């Protein structure tokens, strides 16, 4: 079984070796019929490439570890989805850890990953200190943080996101605006979503008020208390920028309970553009994060770091506004 | 670093060895303060237990592989979340594969897992044949299938779910009912959600019509065409049983577009009780799957199979109705 090669698969399927390789690596266009033919041939002769411990002979597992503070949060569920697809294309496997946003546990998991000889780590953390990464010897990409030592930092263009949201709502005639976000312990690039939104609204002489949920609310994913306070204090607001689609879903609920119609009475813009945005009623106008590009850029960086190459350490990827019903 | 033991951690933290072990295994009640104290001690002295290749000396990785047809589908995102938590308690790590519901790829991934020496596989598949599992030599749990060879099969009590949904809607006075599900290639336990619902509605002389989305719609998670056909053909229906919360979310959208109010004009019951159910407007009355118990029962079965013990091969876990606004 161990001696069966990609050449045997090609022979069994009656196709070129290059075709088998393209199916295995999901490269270029391959018809479903061709995929089936190649997988059937592999299954018939028992070919199994790329078990994830195979790389151990080179001192590395063919594994990327993902560390996130949440798994069911729609943003991280989408990250996991894209990471699995992108890793598969590269013959990598993914291991998933939930840190529950606990900084101590994040440090522990990073050392665990180092001991496990994974190819690299993709870390989402609001709390980890720059110091904690200093002495680690494995490729690390940190998303939505800046200035972290010994790692590549990737973020979406949060400032542009705040600008797009502000311009859209002002353009629709909103003059009494709210921005709902999360209060972070550390400086996060994501804070500039709110800041830029406020800057532009203020420059345009519109009213704008900022509310920030606690870290606890972020971890429990329950923003209703913060949203209700904002709506109680500003009952006539006509435009809301929620800095995640998850917050926006809960804004829709609270507005519905108050009989405030979206978009007739007030308009709502989210952030992320995860599948949830299309499942809400009304469907959500939102700022789209390029999660697919964040993930592929992260894997590129891990590859480059792993092979000892230098790579850009701070990467910013663009966002766009997706207009739907809200 | 490799010589640092759990005893050293206990000494450094000034706690009992048993306490460190409880923190590591998430066993019993441990205060956040105690967790921090233990993790901090581990981080100070560089203790890292349980790298996932550690078990290789025993011929097994400390890894559970999860194979699902979707990752962002809210049911599977919830499964991943519970699996990560439950695996952590047991000192196991999880590797995630997306089969895209492709039977050939599922077979391929199973052989890959066998070659990778994982402790076991948790497989969600609508298509895999009983034959495909026959010759594999690793612990396999298949969820929501029955009669699969060489594996443990776990399902929720789908029949009870259909019954609870029917009784609830009839009790609320609904007499013109729809059930919306997915048409499967293979016999699936999930089919009895619809069947039992129809049986009870018919026995109570209520009108009931069944609509089934295609496998293609299931994979793309877009049920709007099927829902619109059902609502076009039964404009006066007063109760809908959607066999997943994801379908229910899209029913809410289509009803809103038609100006049909939930629950005033018609009532809606979902299935799964994933976080999405609480994010919809109105919040969703649904049948709760015990996803936490499905996952822990699966890991129990993998442990028993791995140590050569016999175990029950068909397990059915109960469901409950959760009443919300719909």
Q: What pattern of helices and strands is seen along the backbone of chain A?
A: HHHEHEHEEEHEHEHHEHEHEHEE
Give the overall shape of chain A, derived from the CA principal axes.
Answer: globular
Q: Provide the low-confidence segments of chain A as ranges.
A: none
Q: What is the CATH architecture term of the largest domain in chain A?
A: 3-Layer(aba) Sandwich
DSSP strand count of chain A: 12
CATH homologous superfamily (4th level) name of the largest domain in chain A:
Response regulator
The major sheet of chain A is characterized as:
6 strands, parallel
Chains forming the largest contact:
A-B, 58 and 58 residues
Q: Report the portion of residues of chain A in β strands.
A: 15-25%
**End-to-end Cα distance of chain A:** 56 Å
What does this structure look like?
The structure is a homodimer of 326-residue chains. In chain A, helix 4 (74-89) crosses helix 12. Chain A is built from twelve helices and twelve strands. The first copy, chain A, has three domains: 6-43, no CATH class; 54-155 and 292-316, Response regulator (Rossmann fold, 3-Layer(aba) Sandwich); 158-288, Rossmann fold, CATH 3.40.50.2300. Chain A has helices at 6-13, 17-25, 32-45, 74-89, 103-115, 158-171, 191-203, 215-220, 224-233, 245-257, 276-279, 291-306, and strands at 63-68, 93-98, 120-124, 140-143, 152-156, 176-182, 207-213, 239-242, 267-272, 285-288, 314-317, 320-322. The mean pLDDT of chain A is 89. In chain A, the strands form two sheets. Chain A has a six-stranded parallel β-sheet, sandwiched between helices. Chain A is globular, with a radius of gyration of 23 Å. With 326 residues, chain A is an alpha/beta fold. Chains A and B meet through helix 3, helix 4, strand 2, helix 5 and helix 10 of A and helix 3, helix 4, strand 2, helix 5 and helix 11 of B.
